[in-house]
């Protein structure tokens, strides 16, 4: 897999938009606590509105547009996945449970055998 280049914000406009998004998030959190006398839905509503606006501003930057394109591609790829049927998923789950049970029994028997050899045979403890 090739290394993807690190994205940096280069334009002044993008830097200003990202700074505005951060300011909007901070204002939203401050508004949530400043509106302590208001009903909870007003406080949460103000926070959510400011967070949505901040996300919109951040997505307007070049990095945000790249993220949006990546998210669309990822969603498209999820649609291409061949999901197992219910029967296949059940059988696979049963195999995993059986393997875990067998391995736990094996490890328990190994542990008890080593404990018996060390403490009873070698050290003579009872």
UniProtKB/TrEMBL annotation:
Pfam families: SecE (PF00584). The chain crosses the membrane at residues 16-35, 40-60, 89-109. Keywords: Cell membrane, Membrane, Protein transport, Translocation, Transmembrane, Transmembrane helix, Transport. GO terms for biological process: intracellular protein transmembrane transport; protein secretion; protein targeting; protein transport by the Sec complex. The keyword Nucleotidyltransferase does not apply. It comes from the Bacteria. The gene is secE. One of its GO terms (molecular function) is protein transmembrane transporter activity. One of its GO terms (cellular component) is plasma membrane. This is Protein translocase subunit SecE. The keyword Transcription regulation does not apply. Belongs to the SecE/SEC61-gamma family. InterPro entries: SecE_bac (IPR005807), SecE_sf (IPR038379), Translocase_SecE/Sec61-g (IPR001901). PANTHER family: PROTEIN TRANSLOCASE SUBUNIT SECE (PTHR33910). It is found in: Membrane. Essential subunit of the Sec protein translocation channel SecYEG. Clamps together the 2 halves of SecY. May contact the channel plug during translocation.
């Amino acid at each position: 897999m090739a290394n993807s280049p690190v994205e940096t914000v280069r334009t002044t406009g993008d830097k200003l938009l990202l700074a505005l998004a951060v300011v909007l998030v901070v204002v939203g959190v401050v508004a949530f606590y400043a509106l302590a006398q208001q009903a909870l839905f007003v406080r949460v509503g103000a926070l959510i509105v400011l967070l949505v606006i901040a996300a919109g501003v951040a997505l307007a930057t070049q990095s945000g547009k790249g993220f949006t394109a990546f998210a669309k591609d990822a969603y498209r790829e999820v649609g291409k996945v061949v999901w197992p049927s219910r029967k296949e998923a059940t059988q696979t789950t049963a195999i995993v449970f059986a393997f875990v049970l067998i391995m736990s029994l094996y490890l328990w028997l190994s542990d008890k055998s080593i404990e018996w050899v060390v403490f009873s045979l070698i050290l003579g403890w009872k």
